[in-house]
Amino acid sequence: MDVNDYFRRSRRITDQVAPKISPKYLPIVRSAAGAGAWDLAITTLVGALSEEDVVITAAEKDALRELMEYLREPLTYLEQIRTSD
């Protein structure tokens, strides 16, 4: 994945999944995304999904995994996220 693909994928998954998290984290994710701070947006989104026990699809989880791996972030919180399929 190149940096432009990373930006596109980050925007897509953030737009798709962020509405599922609570107002406690949503403004942080949206603000970071709006500023182009995708590293903060993605890691905060993953943390919020894990902490709030939000269920996402396997495809959404796979997309987040690719982004977290691109960022070289630990997958600890991502692995705790449940999927619906």
Give a description of the structure:
The protein has five helices and no strands. It is mainly α. Helix 1 packs parallel to helix 3 (38-51) and helix 2 runs antiparallel to helix 3. The radius of gyration is 11 Å and the shape is globular. The termini are far apart. The model has no long low-confidence stretch (mean pLDDT 95).
Shape: globular
The average pLDDT value, as a whole number, equals 95
Q: Uncertain spans, ≥5 residues at pLDDT below 50?
A: none
Structural class: mainly alpha
Terminal Cα separation, in Å?
26 Å
Tell me the number of strands: 0
Rg, please? Answer: 11 Å
Q: Note the beta-strand portion.
A: under 5%
From the structure provided, what is the oligomeric state, counting identical versus distinct chains?
Answer: single chain
Secondary-structure element sequence?
Answer: HHHHH
Determine the fraction of residues in helical runs and give it as a percent range.
Answer: 55-70%
Biggest sheet architecture: none
Q: Please work out how many helical segments DSSP would assign.
A: 5
